[in-house]
Amino acid sequence: MPLDGPYAYKVEFLGVTCGHVTLESRLENFAGRPAYHIIMTGRNSKFFNKIYRVDGRIDSWVDAETMTTLEYESVIVEKGERKVRRYRVDTEAKVVKAEKHGNVTTLPFDGERSLDPLAFVVRARVLAGAPGTTFGLRLLTDKGPFESISQVGKLKRFETFEGDRELLRIQPMPVDRELSSRKEKFVMWVDPGPRRTLHRLEFYMSFGSLVVKLTGPEGDERPVHPTVGVH
């Protein structure tokens, strides 16, 4: 699962850069067990900060053995207002405590592998097989876990920070709803090679499209060159 990093991404809305994201992961000790700690931070571009300031950080801890989320925390600061969302999984008591804006709900948890939204993205890129295949993952939400299925599509060529590359298309969706019935969809594009580098995230919504593009290792100021890789 590790991405290492940190890696830098730019966020575009209708073709205009509106923000920046960093993504990294590492192996840590969490409550006495080895766990992957995945961290995503986000901020607006300077121009959009003048209009509507948003900053955020998401932390996810995933059990390295079972690949199940142990804890998830999303903290978004929007115009000075702090909005918090957490999931805490108690595998022994078989419950998950979901907190949203200070309200806590305790839900049953059957112990099956389930991943929060951030860990879901990181894990999905590794599980994707050849074009035309599918794979299942359970997504952990504030209403409990639900089953999803991801379709692996055809390769498509994109211009990336590493040069011109073919990327593999991955589209997750709930198992109980047809793709054609959904007005919103989410698509991932990853390098099909062994690194499975996450290059693009695309969000299609009723009011427009949001695209997150990998720009390279965070803090790497070297000129972009087709042979530069992600290590």
Textual characterization of the structure:
With 231 residues, the protein is mostly beta strands. The protein has one domain (7-217). Helix content is 7%, strand content 59%. The protein contains 2 helices and 14 strands, in the order E-E-E-H-E-E-E-E-E-H-E-E-E-E-E-E. It has helices at 46-51, 117-127; strands at residues 7-13, 16-30, 33-44, 54-63, 69-78, 81-90, 95-100, 103-108, 134-141, 144-160, 163-174, 185-190, 198-205, 208-217. The two termini are 14 Å apart.
Helix and strand layout, with pairings?
Elements: E1 7-13, E2 16-30, E3 33-44, H1 46-51, E4 54-63, E5 69-78, E6 81-90, E7 95-100, E8 103-108, H2 117-127, E9 134-141, E10 144-160, E11 163-174, E12 185-190, E13 198-205, E14 208-217
Antiparallel strand pairs: 1-2, 1-14, 2-3, 3-4, 4-5, 5-6, 6-7, 7-8, 9-10, 10-11, 11-12, 12-13, 13-14
What's the count of strands? 14
What class, by secondary structure content?
mainly beta
Largest sheet, if any?
Answer: 14 strands, antiparallel
**Order of SSEs, N→C?**
EEEHEEEEEHEEEEEE
The dominant shape is globular
Q: How confident is the prediction overall: mean pLDDT? A: 84
Strand sequence of the main sheet, in spatial order? Answer: 8-7-6-5-4-3-2-1-14-13-12-11-10-9
Structural domain tally? 1
How far is it from the N-terminal to the C-terminal residue, by CA?
14 Å
What is the radius of gyration? 18 Å
Counting DSSP H or I runs of 4 or more residues, the number of helices is: 2
The level of helicity is under 10%
Report the portion of residues in β strands. Answer: over 45%
Low-confidence stretches: 221-231
